[in-house]
Specification:
139 residues; alpha+beta; five-stranded antiparallel β-sheet; 3 helices; 38% helix; 19% strand
């Protein structure tokens, strides 16, 4: 009988987080990059100011177990100067991994980058979409 009360109290305390859990609603978490108004253009489309030398190329949408991934790459000449996530899974690991993936891309100037621990699935999708954008630019 002495142990029954603490076991009951701890069991209830362990279930409280389960009862309070709210699944994600599909909205982007704060700090995540939201998709722009126009994401229906085909892979390899380029846009940008007509007077500038920058070219923007969208990668293909890659479907992963965690959600869709799509990148947009900005080139200045032959150099990658910016990468932006158009679509990304709604997971905290993804939100933390995106800046590391982008920094790796800008440093390597290719899709040959390391994935981020805890966001391997998203990282692989990122690399596939990035490679599609690079291939579309060079073809």
């Amino acid at each position: 009988m002495k142990r029954a009360l603490p076991v009951l109290v701890l069991s209830i305390a362990g279930l409280i987080p389960v009862w309070r859990y709210e699944p994600s609603s599909g909205a982007s978490p704060s700090g995540a990059v939201a998709a722009p108004a126009q994401t229906t253009s085909p892979a390899g489309s380029s846009a940008g100011p007509s007077s500038g030398s920058s070219v923007v190329v969208e990668g293909t949408v890659v479907t992963t177990d965690k959600g869709d991934v799509q990148v947009e790459v900005t080139y200045e000449g032959d150099r990658i100067t910016a990468v932006r996530m158009l679509k990304q899974p709604d997971h905290p690991q993804t939100t933390a991994a995106v800046p590391k993936l982008i920094a790796g891309t800008l440093q390597a100037q290719s899709a040959d980058i390391d994935t981020v621990s805890g966001a391997t699935v998203t990282g692989e999708g990122y690399k596939k979409s990035l490679q599609a954008a690079i291939d579309a630019r060079t073809s």
